[in-house]
Design a protein that fits this description.
With about 70 residues, this protein is mainly beta. The protein has one domain. Helices cover about 10% and strands about 15% of the residues. A hairpin with a 5-residue loop joins strand 1 and strand 2. The protein is globular, with a radius of gyration of 13 Å.
Length: about 70
C-alpha cells in the first residue's frame, strides 16, 4: 500500500472503517489501537476471519452483511 495524503474529505464510495456498523467489533480504522495491517481481511483474537463488501451503500464485514441480508 502506498502512502497517500490524508484529507478530511472521503472519496465517494469509500469507507474509513473496515465495517460501517457502529456496534461491530470490526468498526475500526487502520492505525486504531489493536489494529495491525490493512486490507480486505480482518481476524479476531479467536481466529474468526472475515472479509467485507458493499451492501446497500454501506461497507459491512461478512458478519454484519449476513445480518443485513437476513442470513445467520
Amino acid at each position: 500500500m502506498s502512502a497517500l495524503p490524508r484529507t478530511d474529505d472521503m472519496p465517494v464510495g469509500s469507507s474509513e472503517f473496515f465495517c460501517s456498523h457502529r456496534g461491530c467489533t470490526f468498526h475500526v480504522r487502520v492505525g486504531d489501537r489493536n489494529v495491525r495491517g490493512f486490507g480486505d481481511w480482518a481476524t479476531l483474537a479467536d481466529g474468526t476471519t472475515v472479509s467485507h463488501r458493499w451492501i446497500r451503500g454501506e461497507l459491512l464485514c461478512d458478519l454484519c452483511a449476513a445480518l443485513a441480508l437476513g442470513r445467520r
